Amino acid sequence: MNIITTEELLQKIDAGEELSLIDVRESEEVATGIIPGAKHIPLGQVETSMNQIDKSVPQYIICKAGGRSAMACEILEENGFTVTNVVGGMLDWEGELEF
Question: Where does the record place the Rhodanese domain (predicted)?
């Protein structure tokens, strides 16, 4: 499983890189702020929502601290997706948020 820090992710976003980001936190957590452009798919729905995820592009997966996103990465990797876990998660995120 690939990993990236929140700082490295923010640098990619600030550089204008187009990337696909999935937030696997629960709805109550996302209500406190989500990274602009991120798709919200709670961890418990990842397996049933794979048809909503573009397999042709790398996916960056984030949660609150990195544990649930690592589980989501394992599920997606087993199903042929290219994924990167955002270690530190939203607890470490210092970039912009949408509400």
Answer: 15-98
Q: pLDDT tens digits, residue range 44-79?
A: 999 999 999 999 999 999 999 999 999 999 999 999
Q: What is the CATH number of the domain that holds 34?
A: 3.40.250.10
Does 70 map to a domain?
yes
Task: Tell me which residue range forms the domain holding 29.
Answer: 2-92
Q: Residue 8: inside a domain, yes or no?
A: yes
Residue at 97 is within a domain: no
CB atoms within 10 A of CB 47: 13
Rounded CA separation 10/77 (Å): 23
Mean model confidence pLDDT for the chain: 97
84: left (phi over 0), alpha (psi -120 to 50) or beta: beta
